[in-house]
C-alpha cells in the first residue's frame, strides 16, 4: 500500500486551501515562533527561485454524518506550519499570534532596485525607494503600484524595476512540495514517516497529534478547547499572564473555560505545573477509561472501533467528553485538593518528585475515584498510597502508556481497594522491604526516587534535620537547605575513598549548613565527642541539642545508627549497610501509614 504521495502545488493554491479551511493548520492559535527575519529570508528564497522544502499533510478520514452521507476530511498540516503561517502573513497580510499570544502583522518590505527584502521599520517607511509592504503589492494592481513608484523615483531604471515587480508578484505562482499521507494510516506509521522525512529528526508525540486534532476542529469548538489547555498551562507557570489574555483575547476571556481557570491569576503553587501533554493525558484517561493517546486521536476523528468506520456522532461525543475532562482538570477545588493530598504525603516540593507521570496518574486516580463516589477520606489515602507505590516500583518510568492504560481499565472495572491490595501483595512483599529496597538505596544518585521517598517520609513525620534541635527537614527543603555527608566527604577522601563511595545516599542527610561547617572534615567519632562535651558543659556551639535523650531521638528520626558516635573510616561500610536497612524500615512504616 502506498503510504504517501508527493505533489507540487502553487503557493497560491495552498494558501487558498488554508483560507477555505480545506487545509487545517493546527498550530494557528499557538505562538508563531519564527522571528520576522526568517519570514524575510523565506520571501527572498522564493524570489530567487530557491527550494523551500516540503510540508507534510495528513488527510483526515471521511466521516459518516448522521444522515448517512460522507463528509470529506480536511488535510491537517503536521509539518510546515511555520512556513505556511509565514506565507499567509507576508503574502496575504494576515495576522499571526506571537509568543505573547498577541495578534500582530509581519510586514516585509522590498527594494526593487537592489532586489532585496527587509522587515518593515521606521527608516524604510521614510525611504521612498522601498515598497513598504509586499502584501499590498502582490494583492494589488501592478500597473498602479509601478506608476506610483516611478512618480516617487523618476530617475530609476524602469525596465529593471518592472522586472523586479513582475518577479515579486509572481511569488504565489512558485511551487511548494507537499507530502500527503494516506488517511488510513495509523498514528504510529505517521509518526515514523514524519521522523524519517523531517530533516531535523523532530519526534512527534501522540499528544502532538491529539492536540493537532483538537486545534483544527471548529465544528465542536476544538479550537477553543485547545486554547483552554494552552492558557491553563501558561497561567500555572506565569499567573500574571491573566491580564494579557483579558487584553488580547477578549473572545476567549468570555468563555466558560476561561471563567473556570481565573483562579490561577493569584496562584503561586509550583508543585504540579502541567504541560499540555499532561493535561490532555489526565483529562482523556480519567473520562474515557483509556490510556493510549492514539485512541483519543481516533475517537476525535469519529472512529467506531467495532465497525472500523468513522461517524460524526462519535466525534461529537468524544469532543464533549474531552471538554468535561478538561473542565474537571482545571476545576479549582479538584486541583487544590489534589495538591493538598500530595503535600500531605510529604511531597512538598517539585524537587521530591522526578516523574511527572506519577503525578499525572495520581490526579487521574483522584478524579476517577471522586467520579465513582468514593469516600473523601478513602480517596486521600488511596491517592497517597498509589503515588508512593508507583514511585517505589518505577511503574510509570519505562512504558508509562501501557501501564496507564492497564491501570485505568482495572480501576474502572473493579473496587480500587481490591486492586491496590493485589498490587501490594505482588510487588511490596516482605522481600521488597527487607532486601530489594535496601539494595536500591545502594547508590550515589542524590535524585534517586527511593531517597526522595525517604525525605518525604521525614517531612510527613515532621523530623528535624540531622543534629538540629528545632529546624525541620521540611524547613530545610522549603528554604533550599543542603544535603550533607554524615561521614564528611573530605574525611573520606583523605582516607582514600572515591566519589562513588563517599557520595552514597546512605551517607546523606539534610543538615543546617552552619552545623556542617562546624563538623568540618572530622570523623563521626571526633565530632560526636565535641557534641558530648557541649552537652555536658551546656556550651551549645555545634548544635542546639542539649541532652543525650534529644540526641538519640534525632539520630532515630534520621535513621542514623546510635553507634555512629564511635565510628571511624574502618566502620564506614558497616554504617552504610545498617543505615540502608533503617531507611528501608522507615519508608515501609511511612507507606503503611498513608
Explain what you see:
- The structure is a single chain.
- α9 packs parallel to α15 (293-300), α18 runs parallel beside α20 (400-413) and α19 (376-393) packs parallel to α21 (416-427).
- The strands form six sheets. This protein has a five-stranded mixed β-sheet with strand order 1-11-3-6-2, sandwiched between helices.
- The protein contains 30 helices and 15 strands.
- With 594 residues, the protein is α+β, with helices and mostly antiparallel strands.
- It is elongated.
- It starts with a strand and ends with a helix.
- β9 (108-111) and β10 form a beta hairpin.
Task: Annotate the secondary structure layout.
Layout: E1 4-10, H1 11-20, E2 23-24, H2 36-48, E3 54-59, E4 63-64, E5 70-71, E6 75-79, H3 81-90, E7 96-97, E8 103-104, E9 108-111, E10 116-119, H4 122-126, H5 134-138, H6 142-152, H7 158-169, E11 175-181, H8 187-197, H9 206-215, H10 222-237, H11 241-248, H12 250-253, H13 256-261, H14 276-288, H15 293-300, E12 303-304, E13 309-310, H16 312-330, H17 332-344, H18 356-371, H19 376-393, H20 400-413, H21 416-427, H22 430-440, H23 449-460, H24 473-478, E14 482-485, H25 489-494, H26 499-502, E15 508-511, H27 513-519, H28 524-537, H29 548-557, H30 572-593
Parallel strand pairs: 2-6, 3-11
Antiparallel strand pairs: 1-11, 3-6, 4-5, 7-8, 9-10, 12-13, 14-15
Instruction: Report the portion of residues in β strands.
Output: 5-15%
Specify the helix fraction band: 40-55%
Gyration radius from CA atoms, angstroms: 32 Å
Indicate the mean pLDDT: 89
Content-based structural category: alpha+beta
Shape: elongated
Query: Which strand order do you get reading across the main beta sheet?
Result: 1-11-3-6-2
Which spans of ≥5 residues are poorly predicted at pLDDT below 50? Answer: none
Distance between the termini: 55 Å
Biggest beta sheet attributes: 5 strands, mixed
List how many beta strands DSSP finds: 15
Per DSSP, the total helix count is 30
Amino acid at each position: 500500500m502506498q503510504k504517501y504521495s508527493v505533489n507540487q502545488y502553487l503557493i497560491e493554491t495552498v494558501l487558498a486551501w488554508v483560507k477555505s479551511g480545506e487545509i487545517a493548520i493546527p498550530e494557528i492559535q499557538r505562538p508563531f515562533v519564527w522571528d520576522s527575519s526568517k519570514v524575510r529570508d523565506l520571501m527572498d528564497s522564493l524570489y530567487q527561485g530557491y527550494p523551500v522544502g516540503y510540508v507534510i499533510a495528513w488527510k483526515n478520514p471521511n466521516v459518516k454524518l448522521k444522515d448517512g452521507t460522507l463528509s470529506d476530511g480536511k488535510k491537517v498540516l503536521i509539518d510546515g506550519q511555520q512556513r505556511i503561517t509565514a506565507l499567509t502573513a507576508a503574502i496575504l497580510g494576515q495576522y499571526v499570534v506571537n509568543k505573547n499570544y498577541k495578534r500582530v502583522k509581519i510586514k516585509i518590505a522590498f527594494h526593487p532596485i537592489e532586489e532585496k527584502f527587509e522587515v518593515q521599520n521606521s527608516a524604510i517607511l521614510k525611504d521612498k525607494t522601498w515598497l513598504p509592504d509586499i502584501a499590498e503589492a502582490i494583492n494589488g494592481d501592478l500597473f498602479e503600484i509601478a506608476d506610483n513608484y516611478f512618480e516617487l523615483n523618476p530617475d530609476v531604471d524602469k525596465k529593471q524595476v518592472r522586472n523586479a515587480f513582475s518577479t515579486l508578484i509572481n511569488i504565489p505562482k512558485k511551487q511548494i512540495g507537499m507530502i500527503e499521507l494516506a488517511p488510513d494510516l495509523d498514528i504510529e506509521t505517521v509518526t515514523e514517516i514524519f521522523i524519517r522525512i523531517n530533516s531535523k529528526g523532530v519526534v512527534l508525540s501522540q499528544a502532538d497529534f491529539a492536540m493537532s486534532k483538537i486545534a483544527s476542529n471548529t465544528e465542536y469548538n476544538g479550537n477553543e478547547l485547545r486554547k483552554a489547555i494552552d492558557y491553563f498551562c501558561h497561567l500555572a507557570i506565569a499567573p500574571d499572564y491573566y491580564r494579557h489574555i483579558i487584553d488580547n483575547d477578549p473572545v476567549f476571556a468570555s468563555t466558560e473555560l476561561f471563567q473556570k481557570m481565573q483562579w490561577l491569576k493569584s496562584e503561586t503553587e509550583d508543585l504540579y505545573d502541567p504541560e499540555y501533554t499532561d493535561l490532555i493525558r489526565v483529562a482523556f484517561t480519567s473520562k474515557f477509561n483509556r490510556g493510549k493517546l492514539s485512541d483519543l486521536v481516533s475517537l476525535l476523528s469519529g472512529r467506531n472501533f467495532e465497525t472500523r468506520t468513522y461517524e460524526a456522532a462519535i466525534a461529537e461525543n468524544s469532543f464533549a467528553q474531552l471538554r468535561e475532562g478538561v473542565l474537571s482538570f482545571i476545576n479549582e477545588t479538584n486541583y487544590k485538593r489534589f495538591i493538598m493530598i500530595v503535600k500531605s504525603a510529604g511531597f512538598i516540593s517539585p524537587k521530591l518528585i522526578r516523574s511527572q507521570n506519577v503525578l499525572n496518574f495520581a490526579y487521574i486516580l483522584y478524579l476517577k475515584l471522586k467520579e465513582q463516589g468514593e469516600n473523601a477520606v478513602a480517596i486521600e489515602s488511596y491517592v497517597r498510597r498509589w503515588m508512593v507505590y508507583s514511585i517505589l516500583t518505577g511503574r510509570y518510568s519505562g512504558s508509562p502508556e501501557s501501564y496507564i492504560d492497564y491501570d485505568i481499565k482495572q480501576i474502572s472495572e473493579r473496587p480500587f481497594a481490591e486492586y491496590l491490595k493485589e498490587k501490594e501483595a505482588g510487588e511490596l512483599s516482605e522481600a521488597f522491604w527487607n532486601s530489594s529496597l535496601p539494595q536500591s538505596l545502594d547508590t550515589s544518585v542524590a535524585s534517586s526516587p527511593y531517597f526522595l521517598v525517604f525525605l518525604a517520609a521525614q517531612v510527613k513525620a515532621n523530623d528535624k534535620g540531622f543534629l538540629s534541635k528545632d529546624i525541620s527537614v521540611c524547613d530545610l527543603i522549603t528554604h533550599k537547605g543542603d544535603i550533607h555527608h554524615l561521614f564528611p566527604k573530605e574525611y573520606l577522601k583523605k582516607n582514600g575513598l572515591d566519589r562513588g563511595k563517599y557520595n552514597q545516599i546512605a551517607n546523606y542527610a539534610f543538615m543546617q549548613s552552619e552545623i556542617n561547617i562546624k563538623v568540618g572534615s572530622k570523623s563521626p567519632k571526633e565530632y560526636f565527642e565535641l557534641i558530648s562535651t557541649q552537652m555536658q558543659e551546656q556550651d551549645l556551639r555545634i548544635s542546639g541539642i542539649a541532652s543525650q535523650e534529644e540526641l538519640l531521638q534525632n539520630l532515630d528520626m534520621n535513621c542514623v545508627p546510635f553507634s555512629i558516635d564511635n565510628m571511624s573510616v574502618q566502620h564506614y561500610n558497616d554504617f552504610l549497610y545498617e543505615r540502608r536497612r533503617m531507611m528501608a524500615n522507615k519508608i515501609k512504616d511511612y507507606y503503611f501509614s498513608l
